[in-house]
Amino acid sequence: MDAVLAVAAGNPACSHCGAPISGLPRARERDGYCCEGCYLAAHRHRSLPAGADDGQCALGEALVAALDARERETGLHSKRVACHTLVLARQFTADPQELQQVYLGALLHDIGKIGIPDSILLKEDALTAAEWRVMRTHPEIGHRILAGAPSMTKAAELVLSHEERFDGTGYPRGLAGAAIPLWARLFAVIDTLDAITSDRPYRKGLPFDAARAEIVRQSGRQFDPKAVDAFVAEEIALSEMVELKCGAGPNQAGFSGVQS
Ligand SMILES: [Fe+2]
Question: Which of 26, 68, 130, 232 could disulfide-link 257, Cβ–Cβ 3.0 to 4.6 Å?
Answer without folding.
Answer: 26
